[in-house]
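cron nightly-structures :: item 1 of 1
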Amino acid sequence: MENIRIFIINHKKLIIILLITIILITIFLVSLFLFNTSSAPPPEVKTTPFPFQPNGDFRPFDKLTNLTPTMPFTGADDAANEKYMQKHPELTTEAELKAKLPIETDDFTLDYSYPEDKFTVTFKQPGIVSQKIFEDWMESMDLGDKNRFIFLN
């Protein structure tokens, strides 16, 4: 026992080097087993965004079971719309006018601005004459509300 103690004291540096070498070899071997990389490439996986048949016939909606709309009923139907339009005849006139746009005459051009939600009137000749002609036309079309129009020169 005394001989071993003397050997350890005399060869302390050698023992430390041997222990460090054993630890490094152990770490190296463990890393080889844990991170084993093979030279074969990984298998290629083909994904498709929706189901398809082998013959190339795409049918993504085959498995749908409920094809009814899920929107709630708002209570508005054709009869209610007709009743509302009878109470507000100016909306019917505006809808008919929108369908005819753009309207171009010798004195003005009428169009609709969706961002502004108003009709735009561009006068071809500045002055009261073009404005008067448009106002007469507006009255003949039963478009009494001037707030629905943007006037441009």
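cron nightly-structures :: done
Strands lie at 103-104, 108-113, 118-123, 149-152.
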